[in-house]
Amino acid sequence: DTEVTQTPKHLVMGMTNKKSLKCEQHMGHRAMYWYKQKAKKPPELMFVYSYEKLSINESVPSRFSPECPNSSLLNLHLHALQPEDSALYLCASSLGTAAGNEQFFGPGTRLTVL
Amino acid sequence: GQNIDQPTEMTATEGAIVQINCTYQTSGFNGLFWYQQHAGEAPTFLSYNVLDGLEEKGRFSSFLSRSKGYSYLLLKELQMKDSASYLCAVLYNQGGKLIFGQGTELSVKP
What we know:
The complex is a heterodimer.
Chain A: E1 4-7, E2 10-13, E3 18-25, E4 31-37, E5 44-50, E6 53-57, E7 64-70, E8 73-79, E9 87-94, E10 104-105, E11 109-113
Parallel strand pairs in A: 2-11
Antiparallel strand pairs in A: 1-3, 3-8, 4-5, 4-9, 5-6, 7-8, 9-10, 9-11
Chain B: E1 4-5, E2 9-13, E3 18-24, E4 29-37, E5 44-49, E6 53-57, E7 60-65, E8 70-75, E9 84-92, E10 98-100, E11 104-109
Parallel strand pairs in B: 2-11
Antiparallel strand pairs in B: 1-3, 3-8, 4-5, 4-9, 6-7, 7-8, 9-10, 9-11
């Protein structure tokens, strides 16, 4: 298995909803990432997990809450989002966080906040 | 900051060669990646450079000069399917923090 999977593919939610994005990989990677990508812009790093521990939080608002239940799974819990949070949310994984470890990206979840 | 600069868009002809340049700030540099991203899809890995020189992979090559803070991606024998955004991304320090350039939108025309 050489891919990163993400569910759902599309999500529409209201500003008062609570939802979760899920990411899974079975490549034995020990680093997992969440990125946010707006249209015509590059991916922006949100969080990095290394060996199931949060190692980087790029000053992301608390309405985004990441969780790494085990080495294969990464969740992003969403609560009280704003319309400007609408974007493509990409999950990625790599063997580790050291130099040279390419990050494999999932297909993303396209989120629309109404 | 960690500015990474690349041209916004480029146009080339099928069968030709195109070079996409990328410049970056050298402080804390720990490797450079090139990714390809088709519209609506995830980025896919193309190449990685950490030492000076040229890395060749089929039709794609990538070059790095660490002292100049400069890289380029060379695409040969262009095909229509190469129309995509090409992202230069730099790994700074440790910890997996990958910073992406704005991307170069390449259009390949017949």
